[in-house]
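Quick one:
INPUT:
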């Protein structure tokens, strides 16, 4: 009996989720974690449905303004959208079957309309005669962009973060601009097409916006001074921009280009015809004051600094260096070339000529281009190099982690624990991390492609104390059963899989499963599918299987996009998970009597002939006499002799030159490629080719373009540009040189050729003149810099002298200081007594005024602080209280009777906590902490814990908290049982 109670308390420890207020739905920038969203494509528009994942919506906002005049209980919102923007909206209140309010989008807000106007507009939308309003609000601090309305390009220069916001959807414009809660721009006539924002110390301080008034472009500038955004002119904008410099320097760096330590730099690499260009830009807080190559000093300074250093390598040896120096906004360049084993200073022309000679003399490029830098995937904290999506399987939450384009994973770790080392030539496609009830990783299953295009599956689970053991895929079902509570499926909902069906109480997700396109429908918490139909044909009806409650439907499609398999998963009455399998027979989905037949067809969809081989974790085998047909095949292309059944060939003229284009037909990819002029690309198990295009003029080969992908799933696309010069092929990932070669060989007529040569001669004369001007300017600039350095040194010497003179003068004034009466200052009342009283916060026995977003919270009087929302509840027999600061504030100092227990930092802020009481005394607390890493917020990713030990409330880890809390919970439960 005691064991049963113990298990009950263990599973119920975190059964009470954090109490949250009803969320507010933003129609343009909704939070996918709080909103269940589904969409259905119509002929001229898209129907979207929004449902709260828990509770109701308290309001609906769009374009920065609420649609409802007062907080309400919104249960559903249906929108009719064009180009990703909602044009018409229905709002449902209090579980009503009929919409209670109708709204239409205007330029700067949504307007309430009557039913007749709404239906008229919807009819115009259906007929394609509706005039859409493609304007949206851009908030610079917004973290959600589910519709992909804009892109954000970010770079760091001299400690200042520059972010460029650009609308992505054609014809969409920004009509309102906000920065947090502050309005910056709003207009009915002018609209924004680009916003350049500069951020200092985590706050936006300077804006440059590109406007469009009709067809007339323009610019506006804004600065934030005295906590307000003001429009300024260009000269003021430049002054503020020039003043954005780091407040302090953490360290002065010496960069050794032969052995660089990259931790303190932002590093980028480019490849061009055998040369590798590496650019080092110091991170904020670091200044480069010296550059060397091994034991040879190249550049150093006492006054300026180097915001950028370019190092050029040939076969892993540094051959040239360019140092960019900055002194009081004056930029200069220093060039160095390696001659006879040592670096010598060179001019800009000598530097460029040296690199061009090396490119021309370099041997043909390697058959296999340089691969991306390997990355490490940490399951506890995936970096921004990975896309992470939260989903659920068998009512257990899991994170689906997918490497972004160009990211190659070398190992998978959990903190310092190495879980998987990628074998040679093995590419990770995606990984599922299954979470326990505390949100911590409990198991994972990864899918990769190995040598010979074989499937690689690796899976492990945590047996305790961070000890991970192999988990067979067939054991996953049993492991997930131990991670979930007993399912409570109380509400039925029908799932009609057709294009115009609006989902209710269900979520839809699309992804790839071992290369097979997958569409997944999952019922919300406590809901199940009582009936499933596909385009009017019945697939499942609970009336036929009363003990089976499906919660998940997976559809798998072939390369043509046609759905061929259906997987129906759900729970039996005894809590066991069951899966039924269906196959498309040409007219409807029919039941398969075994999982083996399902896997056989699935292997056909995923291309078993290419992906066949030994799995890292043995999967269930299929015994069948039928041979699975190939889905993807690798074909080696030879342009002089190819199979037209496998290759599509096109030839023609384009922009003055000729081309021959080769594309693999459906279900094929190119491996090796052999082309004209001795062109050779060797696959070697690395990148597959999806396009080979060769360019020529009058039989003279100029170059080629190869579009490649990193796997059979056509992910990690990369384009290589080849040029044919001096009878040699060389490649680059930069299109610049390729374009120059093609432009120089265009098919001119004799008249145009003569004109072109005259232009070239004029350009050459102009370049010579400009070189002389630049040389003269460079000479004058050097003189000016030398003069400036001398002036700075002279001012420093004079400053020391003036300080001594001021001390003598100060003593003279101090003699008569007592004779002068100090002026009386005018009293200025900053706050009224009522405002001061509202700003007071309790701390121990006293109260004091706090003017910032910080909240000082004392556990002695948890309900006394006016800036904190509280709610009482029961947790496993103990009295408990949930506390959340008002909007815009967070807990800074937590105390008990004036004794500090926990203090926030610049990277860790407490936004919610729960207190546990025993006989009126606080015995423990759980703090929900928002963690900030590199300026990006991740909410709810961490928790801190407090509990009474040795008679005092102290900080403890999660294991000690669980142990101490379980003891208290058991005592409280036994006390309640004794009263029965």
């Amino acid at each position: 009996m005691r064991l049963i109670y113990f298990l009950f308390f263990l599973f119920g420890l975190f059964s009470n989720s954090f109490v949250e207020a009803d969320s507010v739905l933003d129609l343009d920038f909704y939070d996918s974690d709080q909103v269940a969203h589904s969409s259905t494509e119509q002929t001229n528009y898209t129907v979207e449905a929004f449902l709260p994942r828990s509770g109701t919506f308290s309001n609906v906002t769009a374009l920065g303004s609420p649609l409802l005049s007062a907080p309400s209980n919104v249960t559903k919102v249906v929108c009719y959208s064009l180009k990703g923007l909602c044009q018409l909206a229905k709002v449902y209140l209090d579980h009503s079957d009929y919409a209670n309010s109708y709204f239409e989008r205007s330029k700067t807000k949504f307007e309430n309309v009557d039913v007749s106007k709404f239906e008229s507009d919807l009819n115009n939308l259906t007929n394609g005669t509706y005039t859409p309003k493609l304007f949206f609000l851009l908030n610079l601090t917004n973290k959600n962009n589910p519709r992909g309305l804009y892109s954000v390009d970010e770079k760091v220069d001299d400690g200042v973060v520059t972010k460029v916001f650009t609308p992505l959807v054609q014809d969409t414009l920004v009509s309102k601009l906000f920065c947090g809660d502050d309005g910056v721009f709003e207009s009915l006539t002018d609209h924004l097409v680009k916003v350049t924002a500069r951020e200092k110390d985590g706050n936006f301080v300077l804006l440059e916006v590109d406007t469009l008034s009709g067809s007339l472009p323009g610019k506006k500038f804004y600065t934030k001074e005295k906590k307000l955004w003001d429009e300024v002119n260009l000269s003021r904008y430049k002054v503020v921009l020039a003043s954005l410099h780091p407040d302090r320097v953490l360290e002065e760096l010496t960069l050794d280009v032969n052995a660089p330590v990259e931790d303190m730099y932002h590093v980028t690499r480019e490849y061009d015809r055998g040369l590798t260009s590496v650019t080092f830009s110091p991170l904020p807080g670091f200044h480069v004051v010296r550059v060397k190559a091994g034991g040879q000093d190249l550049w150093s300074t006492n006054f300026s600094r180097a915001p950028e250093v370019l190092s050029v390598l040939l076969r892993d040896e540094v051959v040239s260096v360019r140092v960019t120096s900055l002194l009081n906004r004056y930029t200069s360049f220093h060039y160095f070339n390696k001659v006879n084993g040592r670096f010598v200073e060179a001019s800009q022309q000598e530097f460029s000529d040296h690199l061009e000679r090396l490119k021309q003399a370099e041997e043909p490029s390697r058959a296999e281009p340089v691969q991306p830098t390997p990355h490490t995937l940490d399951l506890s904290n995936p970096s921004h190099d990975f896309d992470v999506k939260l989903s659920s399987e068998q009512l257990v939450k899991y994170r689906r982690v997918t490497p972004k384009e160009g990211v190659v994973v070398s190992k998978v770790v959990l903190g310092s624990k190495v879980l998987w080392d990628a074998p040679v030539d093995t590419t990770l496609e995606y990984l599922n991390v299954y979470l326990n009830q505390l949100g911590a990783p409990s198991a994972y299953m990864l899918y990769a492609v190995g040598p010979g295009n074989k499937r690689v599956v690796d899976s492990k689970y945590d047996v305790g104390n961070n000890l991970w053991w192999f988990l067979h895929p067939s054991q996953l079902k049993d492991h997930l059963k131990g991670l979930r509570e007993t399912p409570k499926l109380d509400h039925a909902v029908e799932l009609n899989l057709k294009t115009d069906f609006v989902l209710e109480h269900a979520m839809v997700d699309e992804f790839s499963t071992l290369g097979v396109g997958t569409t997944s429908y999952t019922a919300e918490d406590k809901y199940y599918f009582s009936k499933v139909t596909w385009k009017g044909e019945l697939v499942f009806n609970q009336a036929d299987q009363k003990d089976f409650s499906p919660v998940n439907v997976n559809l798998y499609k072939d390369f043509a996009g046609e759905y061929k398999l259906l997987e129906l998963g759900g729970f039996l009455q005894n809590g066991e998970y069951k899966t039924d399998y269906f196959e498309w027979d040409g007219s409807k989905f029919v039941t398969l009597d075994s999982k083996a037949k399902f896997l056989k067809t699935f292997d056909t969809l995923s291309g078993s002939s290419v992906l066949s081989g030994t799995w890292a974790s043995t999967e269930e085998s299929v015994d069948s006499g039928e041979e699975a047909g190939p889905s993807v095949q690798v074909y080696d292309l030879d342009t002089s002799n190819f199979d037209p059944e496998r290759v599509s060939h096109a030839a023609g003229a384009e922009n003055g030159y000729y081309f021959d284009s080769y594309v693999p037909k459906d279900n094929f990819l190119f491996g090796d490629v052999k082309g004209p002029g001795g062109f050779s690309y060797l696959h070697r198990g690395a990148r597959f080719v999806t396009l080979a295009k060769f360019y020529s003029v009058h039989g003279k080969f100029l170059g080629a373009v190869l579009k490649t992908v990193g796997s059979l799933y056509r992910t990690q696309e990369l384009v290589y540009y080849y040029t044919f010069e001096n009878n040699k092929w060389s490649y680059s990932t930069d299109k610049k040189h390729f374009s120059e070669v093609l432009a120089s060989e265009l098919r001119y007529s004799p008249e145009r050729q003569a004109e072109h040569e005259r232009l070239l001669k004029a350009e050459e004369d102009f370049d010579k003149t400009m070189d002389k001007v630049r040389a003269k300017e460079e000479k004058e600039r050097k003189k000016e810099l030398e003069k400036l350095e001398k002036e700075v040194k002279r001012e420093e010497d004079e400053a020391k002298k003036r300080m001594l003179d001021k001390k003598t003068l100060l003593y003279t004034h101090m003699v008569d200081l007592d004779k002068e009466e100090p002026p009386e200052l005018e009293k200025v009342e900053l706050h009224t007594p009522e405002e001061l009283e509202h700003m007071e916060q309790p701390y121990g026995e006293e109260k004091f005024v706090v003017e910032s977003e910080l909240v000082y919270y004392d556990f002695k009087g948890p309900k006394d602080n006016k800036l904190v929302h509280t709610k009482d509840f029961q947790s496993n027999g103990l009295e408990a209280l949930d506390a959340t600061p008002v909007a815009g504030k967070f807990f800074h100092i937590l105390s008990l009777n004036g004794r500090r227990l926990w203090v926030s930092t610049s990277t860790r802020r407490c936004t919610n906590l729960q207190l546990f009481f025993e006989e009126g005394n606080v015995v423990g607390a759980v703090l929900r902490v928002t963690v900030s890493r590199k300026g990006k917020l991740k909410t709810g990713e961490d928790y801190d814990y407090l509990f009474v030990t040795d008679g005092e409330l102290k900080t403890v880890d999660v294991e000690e908290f669980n142990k101490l809390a379980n003891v208290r919970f058991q005592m409280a439960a036994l006390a309640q049982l004794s009263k029965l």
